[in-house]
Amino acid sequence: MSATTSDSMPRGRSWRSIRQEVAAPALSRKGRKRRHLGWLKAAGVIVFVAAGAWGGHELARSWADRPALASAANKSRLAAPVLITDGVITTDWLGRQLALPPSATLMSLDLVELRERVLAHGQVKVAVLARDFPDTLVVTLQERTPVARVRVQDGGGLRQLLVARDGTVYEGVNYSRELLGSLPWLDGLALRRQGDGYAPVAGMEAVAALLATGQTEATWLYRDWQVVSLARLAAHDEIVVRMAGGPEVVFTRRQDFYKQVARLDFILEEARQRVGAAPVRVNLALGQHAAVAFDRPARELAAAEAPSTSFRLQPSEKRASRDLFQ
Amino acid sequence: MISSSSRLIGAVEIGTSKTVVLAGEVTRGRSLNIVGVGVAPSRGVMKGEVVDYKAACEAAHHALEMAEHRAGARLEEVWLAQTGGHLDGFYNEAAVNVKSADNTVTAMDIATVCELAKEKELPPGRSRIHEIRRPFRLDGRAVPDPEHLTGGRLEVGYWIVHGQENKVSDNIHVIGGYHLEVRELVLASLASGSLLTTAEERTHGALVLDIGKGITDYVLYRDGSVVAAGTLPVGGDHVTNDLAIGLRITTAQAEALKLRHGRATPQTRDKSDKVWLNGEMTFGDRQIPRVAIEAIASARIAELLEVVKRKLAPKFAAEHCGAGVVLTGGTSKLPGIEEAAARVFGLPSRRGEAPGWVKEELQDPSYSTVLGVFQFGLRNSHDQVLPVRRKGGLLSSLGRIFA
Fold this sequence. Notes:
The complex is a heterodimer of chains A (326) and B (403).
Chain A: H1 29-75, E1 82-85, H2 91-98, H3 111-119, E2 124-132, E3 136-143, E4 146-154, E5 157-164, E6 169-170, H4 177-182, E7 185-187, E8 193-194, E9 197-198, H5 204-217, H6 219-222, E10 225-229, H7 233-236, E11 238-243, E12 248-252, H8 257-275, E13 279-286, E14 289-294, H9 298-303
Parallel strand pairs in A: 1-3, 7-10, 12-13
Antiparallel strand pairs in A: 2-3, 4-5, 5-6, 8-9, 10-11, 11-12, 13-14
Chain B: E1 6-14, E2 18-27, E3 31-41, E4 45-46, E5 49-50, H1 53-71, E6 77-82, E7 88-97, H2 107-118, E8 126-133, E9 136-138, E10 141-143, E11 153-164, H3 165-176, E12 182-187, H4 188-196, H5 199-204, E13 206-211, E14 216-222, E15 225-232, H6 236-247, H7 251-261, E16 274-276, E17 287-289, H8 290-312, E18 325-328, H9 337-345, E19 349-351, H10 368-382, H11 394-402
Parallel strand pairs in B: 1-6, 6-12, 13-18, 18-19
Antiparallel strand pairs in B: 1-2, 2-3, 4-5, 7-11, 8-11, 9-10, 9-11, 13-14, 14-15, 16-17
Helix pairs in contact in B: 4-10, 6-7, 6-8, 8-9
C-alpha cells in the first residue's frame, strides 16, 4: 500500500489549509488551562535561557579578568583576613591561630593546612577558607555553643573548660563572664586525653536537651541548677542536678524532659505552699511517680495538711505568667 | 518520562458512541509505546459528525485529559481518525510518455505523472483527505518504483478521498479547543485496515469493514493497494432503531436487548422461546420472542452489508478478494456476523484481531481504529511517504513548548 498526505496536494484544497486555531471563547476550560500552562512553560524557558545567557556573560567576563587577577594574587601582599562567624571569635584570635607569614601572597597559602589550624580549636565547628582575589583570605566559621563547664586539673593547673552539645571539650575564647557564670558545672565524669585536648563527653546530647528544656521552659528553676552529675547516666540513664539552696533532682533520659521539669516545678510549688517544708531530694526517674525527701521528719509532715495525691499539670499560682504548660 | 528523542502523540477517534484517545510515545518516528488510554462516551456526535461543538469538546477533552494523565505527560500533537458520511472518494489516472532519449524513467517523469493524476478538481466546499497511490504501470506492467527502468509510457492512478470542508474542520476544531494541533488526518477505514490485515492479505485482496454505532467504514485492498475506501452512514444504531420500532419498545431497551440477545444470523427456531425485555421481571417488564429479535437484527445487518456491497459494486469481485472479509468495530461483536458477511459477499469472513504487539487490554475492536492510526502513520512515515520533519534542535524544541 502506498499513500501520500496532502503536503504535495494543490494549495487550498487540502485539509491542511483548514485553520486549526480556535478563538478563545471556543477553547474549553481544559484547553484554556493547557494554553496557560504552555505560556507558563514558555516563560520558564525564557527565564532559564536569559539566566543562562547572563551566567555565560559573567563567566566570560571573569575569564577575561582571570590573568590580571592571577598575576595580582601572586604579587600582592596579603591583606588582613576577613572573618565571618556566627559566634564570638574575633579577627585577632583568627590572626594568631593562622599565624600567616608577613610575606605571604594569596596564591602561596595552603588553605587545607590553614583550615586544619583553625579547626584544631574545639570552639570552631566548621571552617571554610576562600581566596577573594587579589589579596584577601575570607574565613567563614561556625562555632560551637557551650552548654556546661567543667573543672580540669592538669599540667596547666586547675582550669575551666567548656563542653558543647556534641560533647566537645574546649577552652572558650571571648565568651562573656555572664555567659560563663550562667553555665552549670558538670560532675561525675572522667575526662580522657585525646591529642592535645580531651575526648568528647559521652551522653552530652541528653544533658544538653535537659539543660535546654530548663533554660527555655523554666528559667526560674534553671538559674539554680548548679551542678549536673553524669555519674549515673551511663549505668542508669539518670542525670542528677544539684540546685543552689534547693534539692538534688534526679532526671531520667528515658522520659520526656519537658514533663519532668514540669513535675519538678509542681512538686516544689506544692511543697512550698502546702507542706511548708523544703525538699532535699526529688527523684523523677520513677515513671509515673516521684519520690520526694524533705528536710524534716515524716512525723512533723504528717501533722501538716496532706498535699494532693495526684499530680496535675497546671501552672503554679506563684508564676501565673510563665508559659510552661502552654 | 518522555525522552528528548521521542514525541508524545495522541491518536484520537471521535466516534458516535465514544471518543477514544491513545497516547503513544513515538521514538525516532519508528517505534511506538502506548503509554496512556482515555475513553469517554461521546456526546454531540451523530454518524461520526460533530453536531454539538461544546458537548463534543467536553467528551473529547475529557478523554484527552485522561490519556495525558495516564501517560504522565502532555500530548504534543494529534493524529486524528476521520470518518463520517460526508467522505467520498474517486479514482483518477494519468499517463505520460517517458521523455529521455534512451527511454529511462527519470524522477521528473514520475513527478509529472503523479501531479497529473492528482490534478482533478474537487467540487466546491470539499477538502482532500488522502491521495492513495496505486502501483505505477510502465508499458502496462505494474512496478512499485519505475525510476531508472526502461519504458515508453508511464501510468499511475490515485484514489482520492475527500470530505466536506466544514465537517472536517469541525473535528479539527474539537482538538483545537484543547489547544492541540492535528498533524495527521487518517481515514478511519484505512487505519483499521492497516492494523487488521497483513501485507500478504492486502496483496491477495481483502475487504475490511469497521461497523460502528452510526457509520460503517470500509476499505478494499487488491494487489497490496487500496482500491476503494469510504464511509457509509449506516451502523449498529439502525439495528437498535429497527428493534425499537418493530418491538414497540424504547431505544434504550432496544439497545440493551440487542446487546443481550441480538444476532446477525437467525439461530432460534422455537417460537415459544422468549426473553424478558428488561430482564428484571418487575412491573412493566414483558416477554419478547427471541425469534423476533434475531429476525429484525439479522435482516438489518444483511441490509447493511448489502449496502456496502452495492457501494463497492464496480470494484468488488469475490475472486480478487482472496483474504476475505475482516470485520471490526463495536457492531462486529454481534454474534453470527461473520456468517452474515460470508453469505452476502460470498467470501470467508472473520473478526479482525489486533496484532500480537498490541497489549491485551487494547485488543477490543473499539481500539482498532486508533491503533491503526498509529500503525498507518508510522508505516507511511517510515516509508518516507509522509513528510519528514526535522527532528531535534533548540528551535524546534522551543517551538514545541510554545505550541
